[in-house]
TrEMBL record:
It catalyses: D-glucuronate = D-fructuronate; aldehydo-D-galacturonate = keto-D-tagaturonate. It holds the Pfam family UxaC. Its EC number is 5.3.1.12. It is an enzyme of class 5 (isomerase). GO terms for biological process: D-galacturonate catabolic process; D-glucuronate catabolic process. GO terms for molecular function: glucuronate isomerase activity. The keyword Signal does not apply. InterPro entries: Metal_Hydrolase, Uronate_isomerase. It comes from the Bacteria. Pathway: Carbohydrate metabolism; pentose and glucuronate interconversion. This is Uronate isomerase.
Amino acid sequence: MPTFDHTDLLLPPEPGQRALARDLYALAAEQPIISPHGHVDPALLAEDRPFPDPAQLLIVPDHYLTRMLLSQGVPPADLGVPTRDGSPVETDGRVIWRRFAAHWHLFRGTPSRLWLEQTFRTVFGVHTPLRPATADAVYDEIAARLAEPDFRPRALFERFGIEVLATTESPLDDLAQHAKLAADGWGGPGGRVVTTFRPDDVVDMEFEGWSTNVDRLGDRAGEDTGTYAGYLAALRARRAAFIAAGATSSDHGHPTARTLDLTPAEAERLYDRGRRGEADAADAEAFRAHMLVEFARMSLDDGLVMQLHPGAVRNHNRWLHARHGRDVGGDIPQATEYVHALAPLLQRYGNDPRLTVVLYTLDEDTFTRELAPLAGGYAALLLGAPWWFLDSPEVLRRFREAVTESAGFYNTAGFVDDTRAFCSIPVRHDVARRVDAGFLARLVAEHRLPMDEAAETIVDLAYRLPKRVFNFGKGQTR
């Protein structure tokens, strides 16, 4: 895996702890990358075509970057972000790059700047600092690298030291790209690139086109989704297809963490109201909540690990959604309650060690008060790493400080990069490993943990835990 040229980046400033952290980090740095949750397009690796120009690769698809510029009055269309109606956007990569470089100062102190600078240096070997005056020079250096065979996606995958990369697809996806990866020896069960079952667009009645999506689900699965029983059968069939394509987990991005254990008759009535177009917001929330319990039941049958990513208000920036669609930076975190919300699921299945639920949050306040005690008290529950708006070095440190006392290290599930930006994957994992090295070094320096146990722990956090939790590797079980 590429390493930073700043040897002590993010390591503790106190000399004694820094020396310990260096040794611990060295152990983590040599571990392969396990990436169990992300949004890289599988076509990138299935087709293995050369990357486009630097702007199309690094700026246009990265909503971390485009949303910051939008906040300062630069419309996404000026950065090449496609529009829903096909109206013109900037297509000249060099123009986009210059415009971005002119606003580079906006990213001072942000994780986006850290990730991007280290991507320049460690992936592309570009050490020229990005400034408005150097925009063309940096662009040309990266463009020259992208023209080389060693910078195609599969070659970079190997150089990054990625052992497993999980993408995320809807049950409506035909998984053709994963079939191609399997045919090339890259995908399928136990493969290097696997899919993840993400059913939000057929579960959330408030999702645009939900009822039409449910019809398509039935067509894809060969089941009659006109009935609730047929709907469940279709979901089970698609889960089986995803498992055949290598999936080891499902992912659920609900607005809240609410769960609800309805009777089949109650769930059927909700479903029928939704199909008739009569469901209101309360019905939609109840159905989402019930389906989380239903998916836990399915996981006991088929073994998929459940990932729950609640707490995002989707498309809060309605202008942005109307103009450019979903997943372009218009989402905002909200306060999220877990103790009561998860109680129905946990009372039903939380003590069953056959079930694994990896729980994430966008509400940092819940780390100590709710999440760590929950994970420390239920066999089925593990904590996912800080995610999305929280995936910064500062919050990664606070996460360890907040949850370790109640949940320990081994009720967490390892780091997830949660990115569409393929070239940033090694950088993001390296940041997490450096932060963990610093936290463990402090425990050693305070005589709270011997060095040999700290060394074992950091390898577990970087590699062994996520591999085991997500069932990557033949015979791996939790």
